[in-house]
Design goal:
The protein is mainly beta. Helix content is 0%, strand content 50%. It contains no helices and 11 strands. A hairpin with a 6-residue loop joins strand 4 and strand 5.
């Protein structure tokens, strides 16, 4: 059973940084692309970033390019999202998701995490 657990969310001031972690179990992470999504209050869920199985290919939403960095450590079964220069509009619940057989994660992945709340506010 594919399981993903996010951690690292919290309250941060504008301009600050957070690192989210997505710890996986129940499957071999090496065979799955992983993505980070977010959903702000009253808005649809959007994909923020994704990383291929090997980590050789990454993708970012225009709104976070240059500020967020996705990475993975398959040996630790963990995927990270380093978020810098955070803005109030980055406030959302952040989810990680895994999908096999693709370079990047689609909107219908094989498994979702439960989410972690990020609040950017002074």
């Amino acid at each position: 059973q594919l399981q993903l657990v996010e951690s690292g969310g919290g309250l941060v001031q504008p301009g600050g940084s957070l690192r989210l972690s997505c710890t996986t179990s129940g499957f071999t992470l090496d065979y799955y692309a992983v993505g980070w999504f977010r959903q702000a209050p009253g808005k649809e869920r959007e994909r923020v970033s994704c990383i291929s199985r090997s980590g050789g290919s990454t993708n970012y939403a225009d709104s976070v390019k240059g500020r967020f960095t996705i990475s993975r450590d398959n040996a630790k079964k963990t995927v990270y999202l380093q978020m810098n220069s955070l803005k109030p509009e980055d406030t959302a619940v952040y989810y990680c998701a895994a999908e096999g057989g693709r370079l990047c994660v689609s909107s219908t992945p094989d498994a979702w995490g439960q989410g972690t709340l990020v609040t950017v506010s002074s």
